[in-house]
């Protein structure tokens, strides 16, 4: 079974998540291609899709939105899973007591629900390094108060990512084993 794991990443954290999902699925004897959304010229020929993006201001990156919106019929005709990354830190709930990961869901999860009927959606924690920020983000990141307010570090929970990827492999009927 062929699976496409497509991602849109700005600073590499989401790419790392996509690569890990791909490795986990390969470990379950699935044939997997992991590619940047902007590099995917053709989505036909796959039996399942995992599409993810970093989220900024509750939106996926443009490349991920374009991939889905230009290939809705093809994606909807197969099993599809969606993921997002972005929340920083380790807090489980915000100041109002709401789940941090649920609160970080991108708008696209709702927008694509009726179009794609995804078998699952997942928000993963991201990573942030002040020194890797560039372009317009650099100006914002260096504003007084913002730099100190942004938790710095790698907050990706690899066990959560592996468990989610294994659930995809299970749903696709992949042989047991792997991580």
Summarize the structure.
It comes from Promicromonospora sukumoe. With 179 residues, the protein is an alpha/beta fold.
Question: What report would you give on this structure?
Answer:
The longest helix has 14 residues, at 13-26. The chain is an alpha/beta fold and 179 residues long. The two termini are 19 Å apart. The mean pLDDT is 90. It is built from 8 helices and 8 strands; from the N terminus they run βαβββααβααββααβα. The radius of gyration is 16 Å and the shape is globular. It has a single domain (2-171), classed as Rossmann fold, CATH 3.40.50.360. The strands form 2 sheets. Strands 1, 2, 3, 4, 5 and 6 form a 6-stranded mixed sheet that branches. Strands 7-8 form a two-stranded antiparallel sheet.
Task: Looking at this protein, list some descriptive labels.
6-stranded mixed sheet; two-stranded antiparallel sheet; alpha/beta; Rossmann fold; 179 residues
């Amino acid at each position: 079974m062929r699976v496409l794991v497509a991602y849109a990443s700005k600073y590499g954290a989401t790419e790392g998540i996509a690569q890990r999902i791909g490795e986990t699925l390969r470990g379950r004897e699935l044939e997997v291609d992991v590619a940047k959304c902007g590099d995917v010229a053709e989505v036909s020929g796959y039996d399942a899709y995992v599409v993810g993006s970093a989220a900024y201001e509750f939106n996926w990156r443009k490349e991920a939105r374009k991939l889905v919106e230009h290939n809705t019929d093809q994606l909807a005709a197969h099993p599809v899973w969606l993921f997002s990354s972005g929340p920083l830190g380790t807090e489980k709930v915000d100041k109002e007591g709401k789940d941090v990961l649920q609160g970080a869901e991108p708008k696209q999860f709702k927008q694509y629900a009726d179009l794609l009927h995804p078998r699952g959606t997942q928000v993963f924690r991201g990573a942030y390094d002040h020194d890797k920020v560039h372009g317009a983000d650099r100006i914002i990141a260096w504003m007084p108060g913002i730099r100190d307010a942004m938790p710095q570090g790698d907050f990706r929970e690899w066990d959560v990512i592996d468990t989610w990827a294994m659930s995809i492999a299970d749903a696709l009927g992949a042989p047991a084993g792997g991580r």
